[in-house]
Amino acid sequence: MKWQGGRRSGNVEDRRGMSGGQKLTLGGIGGVIVLIIGFLMGGDPSEILNQVQNQAGPATQQGPVESTPEEDRLIEFSDVVLTSTEDVWGRLFQENGKTYPIAKMAIYREGIETGGCGYGQKAFGPFYCPGDQTIYLDLSFNRELSNRFGAKGEFALAYVIAHEIGHHIQNVFGVLNKTNAMRAQMSEREYNKISVMTELQADFYAGVWAHYATQLSDVKLTADDIMEGMRAAAAVGDDHIQEQSTGRSNPESFTHGTSEQRAYWFKKGYESGDLNAGNTFNDPSLQ
To answer: DSSP letters along 222-286, please?
Structure first.
């Protein structure tokens, strides 16, 4: 993966020195597990935040930021990758007679007050907040990708960013509003299926970005990078995560899709590059 020296649009905000807000009040370890599963690798955090008590905290304050060379490199990398998604989606929207509304990224440490999705914490993993159209990323997640999930290589983090942008695309298309409205009309078990379809479509959109990245942006990908992306997608499958943490998996509780499904939809997006091929909600295998 070649990205060094790539264009940086500057839509990445460094909020590592900011603190404020109050952490969520959770009703025991069960609530923690629900939040971690719900936030890990994306989704709409407001869905879960609405289910727990979230009290307003003190005003946000800016403090000094101490940054390591590795963190500086990751911020530059994230900026170049985010810019690449802007270039790709900007062109695809333009070809369809529309203007792409750019999403921003906020880099933080430990916890952060979002613009409409409550208080985010690094244990949730990267997430997209539709309220302020911003991706939230704690840089320590890059180590977690490698050490906990075994998703090694630079493209693993690029896949994560592209997946979160996939949720932004869903927000722009109105998909998130529709799926959120379904929540009140369904049982948890039924809605989990909708959640899986939503996440797999974001994986598909990540693949679409990868399809066009080399052609339309300063990020140049190889076949090895795509394999890294498929391994990363598989590493964060619900079945793999549950088996890793509890020794077993419960398909009825899946919210993001299995390892096989996540790798499949990422690959499908990459190979087709066709937005019309990513309607996971009409796929018979996901019903």
So the answer is: -HHHHHHHHHHHHHT-HHHHHHHHHSS--GGG-SS--HHHHHHHHHHHHHH--GGG--GGG-GGG
Kind of pairing between the strands at 12-14 and 104-108: parallel
Scanning 148-187, the segments in alpha helix (DSSP H) are 154-173, 175-183
How many other CB atoms are there within 10 angstroms of residue 285's CB atom?
7
Q: Could you state, in order of their start, the residue ranges of all structural domains in the chain?
A: 12-286
Low-confidence ranges of the chain (pLDDT < 50): 21-39, 41-45, 47-48, 50-59
Q: In 3D, which of 138, 173, 145, 172 has the Cα closest to residue 159? A: 145
Residue 167: its pLDDT value, please?
A: 94
Question: Residue written as tokens 């890990």?
Answer: 40
What is the model's pTM?
Answer: 0.88
Beta carbons of 10 and 79 less than 8 angstroms apart: yes
**Residue 108 β-bridge partners:** 138
Contact 191, 245 (CB under 8 A): no
Residues, the chain, total? 287
